[in-house]
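Can anyone check this?
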Amino acid sequence: MSDLTCRPAGITMREMSALVVVNPVAGRAKGAKLRQQALAFLKQQAAGEVVETSGPGAATGLARAAAKESRELVVAVGGDGTWRETAAGLAGSETALGLIPVGSGNDLCRTLGIPKDIRAACRVALAGGLRRLDAVRLQAQGIDTLFINAAGFGFDAAVAAEAMKLKHLRGLMLYVVAVLRAVKHYDCPETVIRTPEQEWRKPVLLVAAANGKFYGGGMKMAPAAEPDDGLLEVCIIDAVSRRRIYQCLPSFIRGTHLTLPEVTMVRAQSLVVETRAGMPVQLDGDRLDTGGATRFELTVLPRALGVRVPQPGH
């Protein structure tokens, strides 16, 4: 840990109580440069105490401890996966989350309007307005966790696994190349999807449960999603051929897929997905170790998390 102690004019004691959580491997090669920019600016602003995560899950413990200490703010320097882990430790508390986008996708920032520019994003994290977002609880056998942007069951989780192997790409190009690799081997298992009002039993390519509008480095999977409306935007894509996946990919990138015959969109406060063992699952871009679970329950936790966002007019 290091302590950023010198507080310049304009930074209040509210910001001095911040904890800065840094994922030292986020964003691949370019992420190192972006992290350096972020930490240099935060040090200049005396933003608070800095700690690096030691591995998967570490950000949750650090954030949970910060909330118990009644810190005002945790600034997470990373990407969607880092923000998910940090949010899991802050949900239900009064400690706010600031997002510094140095990851490969940074999709939550797209939904919230947080700038790509690192210095501008740091200013938002330290002094932006507060927006309370929904979190989503996912439960399965041996699993009880949260996500804040999107969960994917099926093909898109297989894509996330392929993306982890591609070390030199970022953003939408990373996702597109990963799609082209995953499509060679993936099949479409029989799946049960259930909301409080409806049920489907059929082979599917994927089920995406979105709290934010974007995933996959900028794909507009759920253009109508609002992260604070108490609802999931659920996208169900029927089993399709590999050729049809190639044909439809541009529509998913643009967010114009809603009228495709293979696509069903539905809003719900909760969702159950049941499938055969081995169906891949991703949460905010990270592959989930399902431990062989076949039934997943998702429940929206309304406005469980405070996130710093740009002030109106800025």
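Reply from J.R.: I decoded it. The longest strand covers residues 295-309.
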